[in-house]
Amino acid sequence: MYIIKVRGVAKIPDYVQLRDDAFTLLAYFRVDRPDKSLEKIGLGEKAEYIMQLVKEMPFGQIKKLEF
Q1: Domains in the chain: how many in total?
Q2: CA 37/CA 18 separation, integer angstroms
Q3: Over its length of 67 residues, how does the chain's per-residue pLDDT go in tens digits?
């Protein structure tokens, strides 16, 4: 699974994309509201870990998640 942090422009907020190994979009959520999206794909228990990575990542970087 991959995580991408994207900077928003103007009225569009910053957001995060989670993609599988085939790079198919699994989840797309605002940086400040990850809860429902992560629970919907079964990663609710890993939300704290994922959001810590998001805080540390620079915008535009793709990082592989290993659980």
Answers
A1: 1
A2: 10
A3: 999 999 988 888 999 999 999 999 999 999 888 878 889 999 889 989 999 999 999 999 999 988 7
